[in-house]
Write a structure and sequence with these properties.
This protein is an alpha/beta fold. The protein folds into two domains: 2-160 and 341-355, Glycogen Phosphorylase B (Rossmann fold), CATH 3.40.50.2000; 168-337, Glycogen Phosphorylase B (Rossmann fold, 3-Layer(aba) Sandwich), CATH 3.40.50. It is 40% helix and 17% strand. The protein has helices at 10-25, 40-44, 62-84, 94-103, 119-124, 202-212, 242-247, 257-265, 281-288, 301-315, 318-337, 342-355, and strands spanning 2-7, 29-35, 50-54, 88-91, 107-110, 131-135, 147-150, 181-186, 217-222, 251-254, 270-274, 294-297. It has a seven-stranded parallel β-sheet with strand order 3-2-1-4-5-6-7, with helices on both faces. Strands 9-8-10-11-12 form a five-stranded parallel β-sheet, sandwiched between helices. β5 (107-110), α5 and β6 form a beta-alpha-beta unit. α1 packs across α12 and α6 runs parallel beside α10 (301-315). The longest helix has 23 residues, at 62-84. The mean pLDDT is 91.
């Protein structure tokens, strides 16, 4: 059978890389279409996939610019799909649902956000999708009847211990020191569903660094520009190394949802600080069911700083540090005992849906 995956963001590479590899190993034909977004092409280096690289289009801005960008993608995917004739298309973009409906090809949206957080997807993609793969906790209204649910998260499709492990030898040389380090992450918050959302400002970052520095080194990775005062903390690593960096961090603090969840499933204490806190079911579950992350809404700076101070108090002494580590490992094991290995489940769903379109 033939499968087409559309990757429009670096996170999609991680979501689907093991699915692509497993489907290929099983003898299927797989074509990957990738848009030049952020570091996506860097992540694709070395993959011997049947790959189509699309340049990133710079939208004119506003709703008209967004619509023009989507229309251009649809024309491109339509041309590729007509030639390749996949039995199924999968991704996290509305264009595959429209092209799939037009050509009679099943399309699967793989999603982790609740509909309320992604209104354009819910309105313009869900009605045309054949199925939506999403964690059980996620609300996909008004398309819950199309949802194929499972106990797990996107991040377990690539960070499950059966797929990912890390030792300090896997770290970039500059991080192979015995001193603890903390990872700060600043998201761009420029997606259409991020409009008006707040995260960590430069001023707040400096306050966090002042708290963290006495306890270890501080590194920053960022999608957005930041001021000169933060430049000494910038961490420049290949995008492929970021999960190894995260796996050995003493703590993650950021305004990125995805990286907070990645830290959680790696068992790394994580705090997310943005306006999405309380709105995304999968992160609420990781926080309140498993205790593996903590969400603090933007605007509550003092609560964030106090929470960080409380964590630092736990790691100041060897005895309390060991107790904190054991507690975190216990929480992580509880999660792993109650979730599935996501990639084999996704692949099984892809194959079953594609088989109906032979």
């Amino acid at each position: 059978m033939r499968f087409l995956f559309y990757l429009g963001h670096p996170a999609h590479y991680h979501n689907f890389k093991h699915s692509v590899r497993l489907l290929t190993a099983k003898g299927h034909e797989v074509k990957v279409v990738a848009r030049g977004k952020d570091v996506l092409f860097d992540l694709l280096e070395g993959e011997d996939w049947d790959l189509v690289r699309l340049p990133e289009r710079k939208a004119a801005g506003g709703k008209l610019g967004l619509a023009a960008n989507i229309a251009a993608r649809e024309v491109t995917i339509l041309r590729i799909a007509r030639k390749f004739r996949p039995n199924l298309m999968a991704g996290t973009d509305l264009v595959i649902t429209h092209v799939g409906r037009l050509l009679g090809i099943p399309s699967v949206i793989v999603n982790e956000d609740d509909s309320a957080a992604i209104p354009l997807m819910a309105k313009y993609a869900f009605p045309y999708a054949t199925a939506i793969l999403a964690p059980n906790c996620c609300d996909q209204s008004p398309a819950n009847h199309k949802k194929i649910g499972y106990e797990g998260y996107h991040e377990l499709a690539y960070l499950h211990p059966n797929l990912f492990s890390s030792s300090r030898d896997d770290l970039p040389e500059k991080l192979q020191h015995p001193e603890p380090y903390f990872l700060l992450r600043f998201a761009s918050l420029h997606a259409h569903h991020d409009a008006g959302r707040r995260g960590i400002s430069d001023e707040l970052a400096l306050k966090l660094i002042a708290l963290l520095r006495p306890h270890g080194k501080v590194y920053i990775t960022s999608e957005r520009p930041f001021g000169e005062s933060l430049e000494p903390y910038r961490l420049t690593v290949h995008p492929r190394d970021i999960h190894h960096v995260m796996a050995h961090a003493a703590m993650y603090i950021g305004d990125s949802q995805t990286m907070a969840a990645e830290a959680a499933v790696l068992g790394v204490p994580s705090i997310r600080y943005n306006d999405f806190v309380g709105e995304l079911s999968y992160l609420e579950e990781l926080e309140h069911k498993y205790g593996l992350t903590r969400g603090i809404r933007a605007g509550k700076e003092e609560l964030l700083l106090t929470t960080v101070e409380e964590y630092l108090a736990d790691i100041d002494l060897p005895t309390t540090r060991e107790t904190a580590r054991i507690s975190q490992n216990t929480k992580l094991q509880h999660l792993l005992d109650n979730t599935i290995e996501v990639t084999p489940f996704w692949v099984e769903c892809f194959e079953k849906l594609a088989a109906k379109n032979r």
